[in-house]
Write a structure and sequence with these properties.
This protein has 302 residues and is α+β, with helices and mostly antiparallel strands. It has 7 helices and 15 strands. The N and C termini lie far apart (49 Å). The relative contact order is 0.14.
Amino acid sequence: MPEVTLEEHLHEVKDHEAAKLISEIARMSVDIRMEFPQRMAAKKGEENKYGEMAEELDVWTNNFYCEEFKKSGLVRAVYSEELKTPVRFSEDAPFVVTIDPLDGSSNIRSNNPIGAIIGIYRKEIPTTGRSLVASLYKQYGPMTTLVYTAGKGVHEFVKFRKGKMRYCLVEENIRVPEPGKVYGMGGSPLKWIPKFREFVKYMEEEKKMKLRYCGTFVGDFNQVLHYGGMFAYPALIDKPEGKLRLFYEGIPMANIIEKAGGLSSNGKISLLDIECEDPDARTPLYVGSKELILELVERLRR
Ligand code: F6P
Ligand code: MN
């Protein structure tokens, strides 16, 4: 198979500035990955706006992205899971970016996969996910991969580093398989809302699906994109809003799953249709193969 680099692939993206920004974000992974070993055993950083103790690596990664976004001249504002208030740069720059700079940071110490999730808008936030220009995630697993959509299709690349660093195409126009094979769910099963708990039992006993859960949204999402099935961080009995963040995590990934023929939901509607004024809001989140998500939403409604 002829090698297609990310740069070559991005030539097809109509929005040239968005293509440039995606390419810049890909380049940033070199420094970020090199930083992991020396910070893996570091002490906790500081408390973030969600009252969670951020790891030192979360803080470093967030600062690194912000500095690089500023230097790129392409970003006018960054809304980050790790920032108490958004940062703004030149008002002439074209994009507003949302970022979860280091998804799954409780996996740093155990060296399980971690990742990054990014949404790119021309409009100001708050807006709905329908106005995303592009979204992408990076997975730092045994290999570093990058999955993006810039309107048409979902494409996956893997990072090589022999000579000059480059990302090469692994799969173009990924489609979420039907019926799905795997499922992975966050939160304590004892706290899941009862209808959701019943649905998990149904997936296991009747659909014969297989449980696989790594504890990093990016990793759990990536397996659903490739094998089909469902990832959920559901509404909980004592926390109906769930845990995951609508803008930083939910919407960019919902855009990817839906562009790949799957579906996203908050239990009622697509995450892309939610109108929400609070950039820091959480949401119950269900993403995966289309038929399965439709079935789940129907059962949650009854
Ligand atoms: O960003 C939050 C996160 O780390 C996600 O990556 C992951 O899906 C979730 O938390 C796991 O939460 P829990 O440990 O509660 O299952
Ligand atoms: Mn996260």
